[in-house]
Design goal:
Helix content: 25-40%
Structural class: alpha/beta
Radius of gyration: 21 Å
Number of helices: 15
Number of strands: 22
Largest sheet: 7 strands, mixed
Length: 446
């Protein structure tokens, strides 16, 4: 078996790994690079294998950086099966349609036909063509492709997220993105079964999440918002992060009537994903009734006329909108309007990748370009810790410590340089396992 690391070797986006066994070729994940123009251009570079030669894709979960390149692969000739959990399939369909709309819209911004970005990476039709290729798998239920045994296990993280075992003569485990151990909605990742190689994400490999209770932190923020009539603008990912934030809001509103202020979710994609969470509530820690109640503290806007009216409202007010890194979506319009007022707050609640407005604001860079112009963000920037859907360093170590094979080799992916280096040293020191960085080895043979 040979595994080549084609993406997410030095970044937290663009996950894709080529697995070759005998005459068969598979991809584990097929994600988009996200960030600056250089990253966007990387999505247009050809893979080192013809798309038509790939037999199947094993998809860990429905985030864009893991599934977002699938329509382009189909456009280039892929016609194999895409294996994923049912919840992942439904989320991925929403994500891919939204991505296609963005691709088509962004392409119109370039007047020169010589600019490669003037041509959409893929179209709505390409995204829709992918849906017939999805095949549902069940967690913990192995299936065979020739002599290769494939098993999906719960990874936590988001609804439907999985770690994937590929077992031939040896077993390789792809962690996918790992979730938190004390997430109030999602169950923690499953312990590791027998594996010879562990391809492990390292998004937060260099640091732990805050030990502060996010509900208490958010409560203090809301007290300030109410007292000073502020607008709280919350950029949020449509999958998992928005639902968790609303869940915490509802908890506060239930016990603090004085903090129950007008709150809106302005994101069609978030609305659709929330319905999927309700449908698959049995795969969460909440019953359907409990989940519905936890989402009841806010108003989910459906029509464009409703969200356009929000710019006319004044504080105290909460607006939750995608995207979580302020790299697209309605949040740009709200930031353009509310971000220029120093009394307002932009609350960052998740990971901010390099090259995004969210990362600039996190680093207190206030001059940003959005919607075709440059502006100075005068709003206060705050960060609410402990809402991440990614395991922190201690949680990554907790998961890896469930490995029972002292000879297992670990390959770190899906992390920036510092995160990978720090986690490598931590694993070697505390668990005495052999660790490699995918950015250095590029491929393994076994």
């Amino acid at each position: 078996m040979k595994v080549s690391f084609l993406g997410a070797t030095e970044t937290v986006t663009g996950s894709k790994y080529l697995v070759e066994t005998g005459s068969r070729k598979f991809l584990v994940d097929c994600g988009l690079y996200q960030g600056q123009k250089d990253e966007e251009l990387m999505n247009r570079e050809p893979l080192p294998i013809d798309a038509c030669e790939i037999d199947a894709i094993f998809l860990t979960h429905g985030h864009l950086d893991h599934c977002g390149l699938i329509p382009k692969l189909i456009k280039d000739g892929f016609n194999g099966k895409i294996f994923a959990t049912e919840a992942t399939i439904e989320i991925a369909e929403i994500i891919l349609l939204d991505s296609a709309r963005i691709q088509e819209s962004d392409a119109t911004k370039y007047t020169s036909k010589n600019n490669p970005l003037s041509i959409p990476l893929y179209s709505l039709e390409d995204a829709q063509d992918s849906f017939s290729l999805f095949h549902k798998v069940e967690l913990n239920k192995a299936f065979m492709i020739d002599d290769l045994e494939i098993t999906y296990k719960n990874a936590g993280h988001i609804l439907g997220a999985s770690s994937i075992y590929l077992k031939g003569k040896k077993t390789i485990l792809f962690s996918g993105d790992l979730g938190r151990y004390k997430d109030p909605i999602m169950s923690p990742p499953s312990d590791i079964c027998e594996a010879d190689y562990i391809v492990m994400e390292s998004t937060y490999g260099s640091r732990n999440h805050s030990s502060m209770n996010p509900v208490m932190e958010l409560e203090k923020i809301l007290e300030d918002v109410v007292k000073n009539n502020r607008v709280l603008l919350v950029p949020s990912f449509a999958v998992a992060r928005a639902q968790l934030f609303v869940h915490y809001l509802s908890q506060i509103f239930a016990k603090r009537e004085d903090l129950k202020i007008p709150s809106f979710v302005s994101s069609p994609m978030t609305n659709a994903v929330t319905e999927i969470y309700k449908k698959f509530s049995s795969e969460t820690k909440l019953s359907e009734e409990e989940f519905i109640n936890s989402m009841s503290g806010v108003r989910f806007l459906e029509f464009s006329k409703d969200y356009s009216k929000l710019n006319k409202k004044k504080g105290p007010l909460i607006i939750v909108a995608a995207s979580g890194m302020i790299s697209g979506g309605r949040i740009l319009k709200y930031l353009d309007h509310f971000g220029k007022h120093s009394n307002n707050i932009v609350l960052l609640i998740g990971y901010q990748a390099e090259g995004t407005i969210g990362r600039d604001l996190e680093n207190d860079i206030r001059e940003v370009s959005l919607l075709g112009h440059t502006m100075t963000i005068k709003a206060e920037i705050q960060k609410l810790e402990n809402l991440s859907a990614h395991a922190g360093q201690d949680e990554l170590m907790q998961w890896l410590s469930t490995n029972k094979n002292p000879k297992a080799q670990v390959i770190l992916v899906h992390g920036e340089g510092e995160s990978q280096n720090d986690l490598k040293l931590k694993i070697e020191r505390d668990l005495s396992l052999q660790v490699s960085l995918s950015k250095e080895i590029r491929e393994i043979n076994f």
